[in-house]
Design brief:
By secondary structure, the chain is an alpha/beta fold. The strands form two sheets. A nine-stranded mixed beta sheet has the order 2-1-10-11-7-3-6-4-5, with helices on both faces. It has a two-stranded antiparallel ribbon with strand order 8-9. It is globular, with a radius of gyration of 21 Å.
Length: about 425
């Protein structure tokens, strides 16, 4: 479940060993926890869909935790967004940086998904998780539904490793003197060389020093718009460089702290006193409870906010068992690959909870309710679970899986 670029900072693969003699068989599993669902003309249909849709009216937040590289999570999220519109589900929180968020919003508010192609041309990795057709359609839906001046697309993560290809160009446009132009031009040339050769290790966010940022601040001291960009890049560089130096806990903790800050800022700026939002992030970020990376993530933060408003949180992990998957390949030769996959991690998890391949429909999805499992396992069973399995069973309300996953489709493949 690990992607080359999406896991640079804070994702982790799952290893879900069976529980041996303590593992439950399918015959021990309440069959009502496995429900079927299909996606037809953008609508969710079936008993599994009914279970999810019934939760929308009281959900302040809908959290989609995904394994990256599939169209399915974004398409399911879009169907839920449309169904939840009448309940006030009008905001979308995405795994992109706030500066990247502004670029995406500008393009989609004034045009369509096609208007993202110029941002991605020659730099297909500059916009994470909105650089595929299904992801962009999800963002576009929320932005199109909003009033002209309403900010409904909230990018709350650090700026992605490939994003300086865009942000340095923005600084070039903001430069007011030769000193600033020369500095940014040199940084941009080096960044293009790094990605052109597939040498991620020499990317700006991995190599920029405190002196680099001091030079940038000094060169743009009279340009307020540039300060916001430079500051976001500096925070992101600190996160990436901590990870590169082997300080994974420090990196993960700094990243989550930044995400919590930026989310709260967007949340407090919303016109509603209790704005509702749909999130789509990597699965580790959306669960309730401390993650197995020992961080207190957005999924936990939303629990208290919703409770204070006497509302609920709906958490759905979309984790395909089999199908086609888009793989990021940051090399000089190619950017994306599509491959057939079967996830041993998901198979292991399903085995632990007593769900067999044949319990999953060949077409459509299996929606697995996790709350009944928690009561079936009781304290003794829960305590014996491997940490990742326990994390998912306690942290999510539903797992959605399929044997026919569809690979994400890049907006532009270079």
């Amino acid at each position: 479940m690990m992607r080359v670029l999406c896991v640079i900072v804070a994702c982790a693969g799952l290893s879900l060993p069976a529980l041996g003699q303590q593992s439950r068989n399918t015959s021990d599993t309440d069959p009502s926890i496995v429900m079927t669902m299909t996606l037809e003309d953008g609508e969710l249909i079936g008993p599994g869909a009914d279970a999810l849709l019934a939760r929308l009216p009281n959900a302040q937040f809908v959290l989609i935790g995904e394994d990256h590289g599939f169209s399915d999570p974004s398409e399911i999220a879009l169907a839920l967004a449309k169904a939840g519109g009448s309940s006030g589900l009008t905001n979308h929180v995405a795994e992109v940086g706030p500066i990247t968020d502004e670029l995406i919003t500008q393009r989609l508010a004034n045009g369509s998904i096609d208007d993202l192609t110029d941002l991605l041309s020659g730099r297909p990795l500059a916009i994470p998780f909105v650089n595929t057709v299904a992801d962009a359609a999800l963002a576009d839906y929320f932005i199109d539904q909003a009033d002209m001046d309403q900010d409904v697309f909230w990018g709350v993560d650090q700026e992605f490793i490939g994003s300086p290809l865009l942000h340095l160009e923005s600084l070039m446009e903001l430069a007011t003197g030769f000193e600033a132009e020369d500095l940014v031009s040199a940084l941009l040339e080096k960044e293009r060389e790094a990605f052109g050769s597939g040498n991620q290790e020499s990317a700006f966010l991995f190599t920029a020093t405190s002196e680099t940022f001091q030079e940038l601040y000094s060169s743009f001291s009279d340009v307020p718009d540039a300060y916001e960009i430079i500051q976001a890049l500096e925070v992101s560089a600190t996160i990436y460089q901590s990870f590169k130096a082997g300080r994974g806990f420090a990196s993960n903790t700094a990243r989550i702290h930044y995400m919590r800050q930026t989310f709260i800022s967007a949340y407090n700026a919303a016109p509603s006193s209790a704005p509702r939002a749909l999130f789509k992030f990597g699965a580790i970020h959306m669960a309730r409870g401390t993650t197995f990376l020992n961080t207190f993530d957005l999924g936990s933060l939303t629990e208290g906010i919703a409770a204070a408003n006497e509302l609920d949180v709906l958490r759905i992990a979309v984790m395909p068992l089999e199908g086609e998957q888009l793989i990021v390949s940051p090399t000089a030769d190619e950017t994306f690959q599509t491959r057939s996959m079967r996830s041993n991690d998901v198979a292991g998890f399903l085995g632990i909870i007593g769900v067999r391949d044949e319990d999953i429909p060949e077409d459509g999805y299996a929606v697995i309710a996790l709350e009944p499992l928690r009561y079936q396992l009781e304290q003794n069973g829960l305590n014996q679970l491997p940490p990742p399995a326990k994390f998912f069973i306690l942290g999510y309300d539903y797992v959605v899986t399929t044997r026919g996953a569809r690979a994400a489709v890049p907006i532009i493949a270079e």
